[in-house]
Amino acid sequence: MEQTLCCYRHPDRETGIRCTRCERPICPSCMVSASVGFQCPSCVSESNSSHHASQPRTVAGGRVGHGDPFLVTKILIGLNVAVWLLELAVGNKLLTDLGLYAYCDSPPYNNVCGGVANGEWYRVITSAFLHDRTNPAHIGFNMLSLWWIGAPLEQRIGRWHYSALYLVAALGGSAAVLLLAPDSLTIGASGAIFGLFGATAVYMRRLRYDMRPIMILLVLNIIFSFTWANVSWQAHLGGLVAGTLVAIGMLYAPQRRRVLVQWGTTAAVLVVSLALTAVAVAQVTS
């Protein structure tokens, strides 16, 4: 059973929220809104009174970036839209040249291989920036999801953590596709976006927020993945697992050796994703 928390300044008031700096439980009366969650009056006072206060940090321990807090998300959306517009101009060439698949013809066809099985490993990441040029809803829905889920998450965990999370989730999605459906041409940012869904759930759990909204949204998207035609549930599943694991390492890392644990976890998930991709290719080529 989960332990009931009481505000450290008002012991008679139960709460589920912690200060993002000192992690002490605080009630609504003590919650001071900050750029990354809520802080307690003591931490706010300490920050304001010190002329040499350290630079503000996110809940993941990263420095709060100057300027636009949603910069990486905007760049990712811009890249996806630019590639889609290029697809409109050149036709299906980008899909065949950069989309994700792996196959080998069996004898007597001389084992001719294509895609990742032909050494074109760049497809595991380039495919995450491609969308169906004949279906504007494909890129439209993905980019709206990226903005609604990604932008707040970028602000709360920081640019570098967010960028690494997105990349590894995309590669996790690609690994799952190659393991489970290697001969199907797969494109789209949804694998990485599902990783952001998982990371958001971890973030909300970490700060003891009400998780029902994000869990309902996640369940609906999972149902959508398995019931709609031409949707790669393999990419969604792989991205969700990879993004969730990376987020757990980032948000639950202990204060001591936090950086080592965070980036060690990220590197481990990355290595596993690439290793699974290698196993998938070996199966196709054997």
Automatic annotation (TrEMBL):
Belongs to the peptidase S54 family. The chain crosses the membrane at residues 164-181, 187-204, 211-229, 235-253, 260-282. This is Membrane associated serine protease, rhomboid family. Pfam families: Rhomboid (PF01694). Keywords: Hydrolase, Membrane, Protease, Transmembrane, Transmembrane helix. One of its GO terms (biological process) is proteolysis. Residues 119-251 form the Peptidase S54 rhomboid domain. It comes from the Bacteria. Signal peptide: none annotated.
